[in-house]
Design a protein that fits this description.
Rossmann fold; alpha/beta; 8 helices; Methionyl-tRNA Fmet Formyltransferase, Chain A, domain 2; 2 domains; seven-stranded mixed beta sheet
Amino acid sequence: MKEALKIIFMGTPDFAVATLKTLVDSTYDVVGVITAPDKPAGRGRKLNESAVKKYAVAEGLTVLQPTNLKHPDFIKALESLEANLQIVVAFRMLPEVVWAMPKYGTFNLHASLLPNYRGAAPIHWAIVNGEKVTGVTTFFIDEKIDTGAVILQESIAVADTETVGTLHDKLMHLGSALVIKTVDLIQNGDVATTIQPTTDDVKTAYKLNKDNCKIDWSLDLDTIYNKVRGLNPFPAAWCYLNNNDEQLSVKIFGIEKEPFDHDLDCGTLDISKQELKVAVRGGYITIKEIQLPGKRKMDMKSLLNGYDFSKNAKML
């Protein structure tokens, strides 16, 4: 049995809160929480606290919100907490002076089966790429991004109807349980690690941007279906709707796919009173939820009741 663990937790979004809560509920000693600085948000530019900060403050935990992770004042404050283990979940890249500080190291929870999907958006890309299995990994942090020695992994099936929203929540809970298993191993001195293989065919979880979230309607049915699922509900796949010679930027959320042989041009709309289908290679994408510029997300029936499509309307 090692000495009692004194843990610093680092994280920012809801995904990280589940793990922090599990640590607190498991009676591990969380001596400090590091999270992002408050940021102005909304029309009133009111300062918005991270999900992790809100939870940590409610639990009476010590919270630090550094803007510079190398600043001497932050390093001094970190050292004063006298932690011997640091846990990172959905935070930012740490300098060596931080991750090398605690006696038992710093480990990260990543939402993929490493070495695949290193990077910023592993949950999204697993669905976009049509993976049937994904999972979570704990690993000790080193000087590169998501390359450290693996401690534990847990896999989960990816359903054909999965969205990034539903998979996010599943991995959030799977990951928090894996963190506890990892902490237990460290506490008992039973950690065994595996070096990540070096291979050229590793899949990457690129940062999402406007370009790689745009739908290319010339692609095949499954590729488009997976892309929209992998971006629903955040940040959402988008495209242009050409209607009455006006190009509107629209976001696409809920969809279904229908394999079908047709001779329509890709992007052609098949509109009825109840449905809007888009012709693609190998079939149709039926749109269930859409968001027009400046409007709220709406179901297709609501849109069709109040929106006029021209005869030649098309998705671009």
